[in-house]
C-alpha cells in the first residue's frame, strides 16, 4: 500500500512537471494534482492492462510505439474525470505521459533502492 501511495505521489509530481514544461497541460490546485496522481495509479492498474491487451496486435506492428498512444489515452482519461486538470490536446496528453513516465521511472528506481537498503540492514 505504501508503494502505491509513493508511486501515486510520483505520478502527481509528473503531472506537476508536465504542467510546468508543456503549455497544453494545466493543473489548478494541489488537491486536483494529488487526486490526478491517485486516479492515474488506479487507471494504470485496472484500465491500462485491458487496453494494452486489446491493442496488442497494433502494438506489435508498431514495435511498441502504440503504447505511447495508450499512455496518452490514460492521461486524457484522468484529465477528463479530475476537475482542475486540463490537457489541451492529444499530443499534449502523449507528451505529458512521457514526462509522467520518466518521473515514475526515476521514483521507482529510488523506491526500489531504498527497499534494498532497508532489507540489507
Features:
121 residues; mainly alpha; two-stranded antiparallel ribbon; 5 helices
Radius of gyration: 15 Å
Instruction: State the separation between the terminal residues, measured CA to CA.
Output: 22 Å
> What count of domains describes the coordinates?
1
**Helical segment count:** 5
Q: Mean pLDDT across all residues, rounded? A: 92
Main sheet, how many strands, which sense, barrel?
2 strands, antiparallel
Structural class: mainly alpha
Please provide a written account of the structure.
By secondary structure, the chain is mainly alpha-helical. The chain has one domain (2-120). 81% of the residues lie in helices and 5% in strands. The protein has a two-stranded antiparallel ribbon with strand order 1-2. Helix 1 (2-21) packs antiparallel against helix 5 (90-120) and helix 2 packs across helix 4 (66-81). The longest helix is centred in the C-terminal third of the chain and has 31 residues, at 90-120. It is globular, with a radius of gyration of 15 Å.
Q: Summed up, what is this model?
A:
The protein has helices at 2-21, 30-54, 56-61, 66-81, 90-120, and strands spanning 25-27, 85-87. The protein is mainly α and 121 residues long.
How would the blueprint of this fold be written?
Elements: H1 2-21, E1 25-27, H2 30-54, H3 56-61, H4 66-81, E2 85-87, H5 90-120
Antiparallel strand pairs: 1-2
Amino acid at each position: 500500500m505504501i508503494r502505491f501511495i509513493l508511486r501515486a505521489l510520483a505520478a502527481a509530481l509528473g503531472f506537476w512537471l508536465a504542467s510546468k514544461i508543456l503549455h497544453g497541460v494545466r493543473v489548478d490546485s494541489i488537491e486536483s494534482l494529488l487526486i490526478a496522481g491517485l486516479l492515474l495509479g488506479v487507471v494504470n492498474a485496472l484500465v491500462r492492462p485491458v487496453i494494452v491487451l486489446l491493442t496488442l496486435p497494433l502494438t506489435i506492428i508498431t514495435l511498441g510505439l502504440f503504447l505511447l498512444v495508450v499512455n496518452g489515452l490514460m492521461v486524457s482519461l484522468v484529465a477528463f474525470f479530475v476537475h482542475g486538470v486540463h490537457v489541451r490536446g492529444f499530443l499534449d496528453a502523449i507528451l505529458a505521459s512521457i514526462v509522467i513516465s520518466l518521473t515514475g521511472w526515476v521514483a521507482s528506481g529510488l523506491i526500489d533502492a531504498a527497499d534494498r537498503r532497508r532489507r540489507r540492514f
